[in-house]
């Protein structure tokens, strides 16, 4: 992954949480300006020490970091699970296509159903099940099966059952050895485990009580912040409130964005469509038989390359012979 230049990311808006917290940020800043005007017009002095308020801010920042870390753990676990889906899909496809029936129709159907698993999981995690929402799957498994899929109780399980049926039929027809059938079944079971792990992340959000307390604490802190600093900050009170509120509100929103790594409404959702497209390309490319291997003797290295390698290779062999003689001298 290529990281963009420092100044590009400093001023980048796309992918940033700033637009999503801008309303709250300017609201607290305007409230800070109103507090300053109120104290300035009425000549009030609160006489509060700001040191104690700074300690409270440190505690709040720690709580927000804990929430952000919890969200990142969910995001990273989901990415590892989808890495497993990539590996298991490739393994399952290769076992069936290499050790399964040679029939072209069976091979193509098998590869297409394996390739369909990842996009079906993607739609299922995004709660997309209507035919219109999953219509692009008709390019992989056909329109008729896509309609059946949209009516299924659990779409990933429907795909897995189709794969299992094809494997069972291949074994029953004597076109697949039971050993390789068991290997394919192990990979298929791992795919079920992976979608179960994704559903666990999706249906177990951060505890609501924890989220409520943090946001309530954050609101009260920013509400009383201009009152606590108005004597020391003076006319700069709105600016100080802005500079303090920006990172705190941004951390809070980042925790929210990371909580659901599957939703396209989140800024940092996982690139599930790209991952699924990669799996589909890899699996469907395996349908055709690879050509017979060309023996090394029938395809020697390029002459220019070979000539440049002759002297170093010969020198290496002579050096090795000398070293062996020095270590193991011949018996007299």
TrEMBL record:
Membrane topology per record: Multi-pass membrane protein
Molecular function as annotated in GO: chloride channel activity
Gene Ontology cellular component annotations, sorted alphabetically: plasma membrane
Superkingdom assignment: Bacteria
Coiled coil segments of this chain: none
Keywords tagged on the record: Cell membrane, Ion transport, Membrane, Transmembrane, Transmembrane helix, Transport
Main location as per UniProt: membrane
TM region(s), chain numbering: 21-39, 51-70, 218-249
Protein name: Bestrophin
Organism: Blastopirellula marina
């Amino acid at each position: 992954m290529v990281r963009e230049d420092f100044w590009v990311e400093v001023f980048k808006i796309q992918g940033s949480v700033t637009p999503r917290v801008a309303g709250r940020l300017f609201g607290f800043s305007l409230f800070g300006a109103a507090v300053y005007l109120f104290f300035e017009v009425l000549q009030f002095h609160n006489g509060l020490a700001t040191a104690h308020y700074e300690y409270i801010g440190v505690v709040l920042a720690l709580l927000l970091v804990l929430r952000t870390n919890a969200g990142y753990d969910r995001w990273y676990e989901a990415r590892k699970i989808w890495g497993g889906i990539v590996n298991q899909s490739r393994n399952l496809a290769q076992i069936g296509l290499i050790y399964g029936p040679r029939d072209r129709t069976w091979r193509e159907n098998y590869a297409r159903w394996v390739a369909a698993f990842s996009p079906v999981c993607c739609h299922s995690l995004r709660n997309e099940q209507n035919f219109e929402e999953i219509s692009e799957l008709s390019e992989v498994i056909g329109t008729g099966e896509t309609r059946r899929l949209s009516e299924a109780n659990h779409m990933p399980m429907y795909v897995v059952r189709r794969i299992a049926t094809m494997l069972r039929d291949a074994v029953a027809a004597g076109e697949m050895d039971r050993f390789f059938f068991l290997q394919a079944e192990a990979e298929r079971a791992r795919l079920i485990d992976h979608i179960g792990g994704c559903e666990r992340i999706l249906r177990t959000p951060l505890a609501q009580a924890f989220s409520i307390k943090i946001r309530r604490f954050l609101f009260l802190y920013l509400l009383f912040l201009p009152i606590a600093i108005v004597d020391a900050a003076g006319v700069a009170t709105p600016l100080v409130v802005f500079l303090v509120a920006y990172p705190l509100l941004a951390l809070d929103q980042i925790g929210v964005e990371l909580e659901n790594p599957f939703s396209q409404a989140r800024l940092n959702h996982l690139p599930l469509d790209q991952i699924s497209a990669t799996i589909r390309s890899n699996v469907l490319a395996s349908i055709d038989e690879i050509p017979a291997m060309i023996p090394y003797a029938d395809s020697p290295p390029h002459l220019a390359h070979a000539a440049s390698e002759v002297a170093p290779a010969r020198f290496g062999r002579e050096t090795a012979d000398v070293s062996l003689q020095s270590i193991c001298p011949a018996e007299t």
